Amino acid sequence: VIDQPALHERILYEPLRLRVLQGKVESQKLLMPDAIECSAGEAAVLMEYRELLLEIGFEIEDFGGTTILVSAHPVMLPRGNFVRILRDLAERLEESDGKTSRRDLLDHMMHTMACKAAIKAGQRLAPEEMHELLRQRHTVDDAHHCPHGRPTSLMLSRATLDKQFGRLG
Prior knowledge:
Blueprint: H1 4-22, E1 27-37, H2 40-48, H3 50-55, E2 59-62, E3 67-74, H4 82-96, H5 102-117, H6 127-136, H7 158-164
Antiparallel strand pairs: 1-3, 2-3
Helix pairs in contact: 1-5, 2-4, 4-5
């Protein structure tokens, strides 16, 4: 039994992590920057970690007050998701209050991006998409766990199924 979203997260996470380590994350420039209204804390922390955000593909700038302009986002993210991801990252950065290491923050950002870009639970896939997901499973180092550590698949033997259904005879 395969957890498609968990497997897809892993498939997205590993190449992203490699690109971040190599300094080669692709960004999509926006024709018109998107203005995001933030709380004062969110705006301050996003600007404080501007360089770290740039490493994962976000280009932001202060627009005054509590408004942040986003001029580029990571290519792997669907356009509508990047605002929600930036808010999630701002919340995490505020919570860390400078106590979380740069590496842990970067890792959390990559986990979040892979999670938000992955297929969702309950999303129906066409047979071709399922086959492609299974094919890509062999291209990653740890296809057995999502970036958060959850298993991507479970093996259920006939004996296990018989036991679960009370057919032990």
